Fold this sequence. Notes:
The complex is a heterodimer.
Chain A: E1 9-13, E2 18-23, E3 31-38, E4 45-50, E5 55-56, E6 61-64, E7 70-75, E8 84-92, E9 106-111
Parallel strand pairs in A: 1-9
Antiparallel strand pairs in A: 2-7, 3-4, 3-8, 5-6, 6-7, 8-9
Chain B: E1 5-7, E2 10-13, E3 19-24, E4 31-38, E5 42-50, E6 53-57, E7 64-68, E8 74-78, E9 87-94, H1 98-103, E10 106-107, E11 111-115
Parallel strand pairs in B: 2-11
Antiparallel strand pairs in B: 1-3, 3-8, 4-5, 4-9, 5-6, 7-8, 9-10, 9-11
Amino acid sequence: DAKTTQPPSMDCAEGRAANLPCNHSTISGNEYVYWYRQIHSQGPQYIIHGLKNNETNEMASLIITEDRKSSTLILPHATLRDTAVYYCIVRVIKAAGNKLTFGGGTRVLVKP
Amino acid sequence: KAGVTQTPRYLIKTRGQQVTLSCSPISGHRSVSWYQQTPGQGLQFLFEYFSETQRNKGNFPGRFSGRQFSNSRSEMNVSTLELGDSALYLCASSTGQGALGANVLTFGAGSRLTVL
Lengths: 112, 116
């Protein structure tokens, strides 16, 4: 699986958009980008994933650059409940199932 | 629908003992995977079971083992506990196949183990 690089921490103002970057310069053509988050003392929560097109769901948007070497997770209107550690994971879909590698993630603090 | 249920939520053991943790996946999910989370090492993959067979295994010693039953419920066991085994043990379930199912996991709240 390709390695990902994320900033260790970032602050965001409540109500503003939070843009979380992720670098995955060694990504291969069949690897997807997945985002999870972990709110303190809870299990990680799946947010979104994509291959090469931008994706949007009720939680967030995922913007993947044309060369696929980086991506940005966008939380459109951050709330205090979005304070969490956000993990960017690159993973190929394998018939042999999952073995996700969580890096250090980005610790996001949403401030009032 | 009910989420992933892990029991017990908290437990305290002493060195040398063994522990068994249980995980009930979301109904219909055939894949169950286990992760260990510690402040120093972060989230680390332990193993994954799919249809009662271990399909993937992380880099943990043989003291860590697991199994999956025909109803997809899973247990993990840690024998001869060491202080370093103190951690949050997370279970996750998925359908186990396809783009959405292979790597889109639903996690439980975890079992927090303290080894004294």
